[in-house]
Specification:
Layout: E1 2-8, H1 11-24, E2 28-35, H2 38-51, E3 57-62, H3 69-77, E4 86-91, H4 95-100, H5 103-110, E5 120-123, E6 131-134, H6 140-147, H7 155-161, H8 175-185, H9 189-195, H10 197-208
Parallel strand pairs: 1-2, 1-3, 3-4
Antiparallel strand pairs: 5-6
Helix pairs in contact: 1-8, 9-10
Length: 209
C-alpha cells in the first residue's frame, strides 16, 4: 500500500480527498493531513512540493477568482518545477460545487428543493471547448449557507449550516458537523463527476497515482 499526504484548506475539503481515495484509489494510505487555510496554501506550496520528493502529496484547493484551473495552478507554483508526485487539484469554483453536483443526494440530505440546487452547464474557461461545471451566480459556499439552507426543511441541518443573508460569517458554527458526514456517507462522486469536469479530472489523477 502506497503512503500519501493530503492537503486541503478546511476539514470538508480534506474529507473530500479521503472519500475520493476510498472510492477510487484504495491502494493509497493517508499517512498524514497537512492543514492549510485558504490564505496559507500558496505560502506552503514550496513545502508541499519538497515533501513530494519523498511521499506523494495530494492537494485540493478552490479556484475562487482565478479564470481557470491551469492559471490557478501556475500562480500557486509561482515558478517552481512541480514534482511528479505533487498532485494539485483545483475545484471549480469551490468544493461545495462538487457536493452540489450530486443534486439529488445533496437536496435530500440537506432538506432543500432539488429545483433550487444549481445545475451543470458547459462552461468555456481557457480551453478550446466548454466543459461541464456547476453554474453558480455567486461563490457556491455562499449560495449554500446564505441562500439554499434558508429554505431547508431539515431544522437540525439548517441550524448547523445556514447563515443569515445579512451575516458576514461565511459558514454556520456547526458547518463541518453537518457537511463532513454527507461527504463520507451520502455524497455520490460517481454521479457528481459527470456534472463537474474538475472533479472528474481529480478522480482520474488519483487512479493514475
Amino acid at each position: 500500500m502506497k503512503e500519501v499526504y493530503i492537503a486541503g484548506e478546511d476539514e470538508a475539503t480534506r474529507a473530500v480527498i479521503v472519500r475520493l481515495l476510498k472510492d477510487y484509489a484504495p491502494h493509497l494510505h493517508v499517512l498524514g493531513e497537512l492543514p492549510a487555510r485558504g490564505s496559507q496554501v500558496k505560502a506552503k506550496i514550496g513545502n508541499f512540493n519538497k515533501l513530494a520528493k519523498d511521499y506523494p502529496v495530494i492537494l485540493l484547493t478552490d479556484l475562487d477568482d482565478e479564470p481557470c484551473g491551469p492559471i490557478g495552478k501556475e500562480k500557486l507554483l509561482n515558478g517552481q518545477v512541480q514534482e511528479r508526485d505533487f498532485v494539485i487539484n483545483i475545484a471549480v469554483d469551490e468544493v461545495e460545487a462538487w457536493l452540489m453536483a450530486d443534486r439529488d443526494g445533496f437536496a435530500r440530505y440537506f432538506g432543500v428543493p432539488v429545483a433550487q440546487v444549481p445545475v451543470s452547464m458547459p462552461q468555456k474557461m481557457s480551453g478550446r471547448k466548454a466543459l461541464p461545471e456547476i453554474s453558480v451566480p455567486v461563490k457556491s459556499s455562499w449560495l449554500f449557507t446564505h441562500d439554499l439552507m434558508q429554505h431547508s426543511t431539515n431544522a437540525e441541518k439548517k441550524a448547523q449550516v445556514a447563515v443569515s443573508p445579512q451575516d458576514k460569517n461565511s459558514k454556520g458554527k456547526e458547518y463541518n458537523t453537518a457537511v463532513v458526514p454527507f461527504i463520507h456517507h451520502v455524497w455520490n462522486p460517481e454521479v457528481a463527476r459527470v456534472a463537474s469536469d474538475s472533479l472528474n479530472r481529480m478522480i482520474v489523477r488519483l487512479g493514475r497515482l
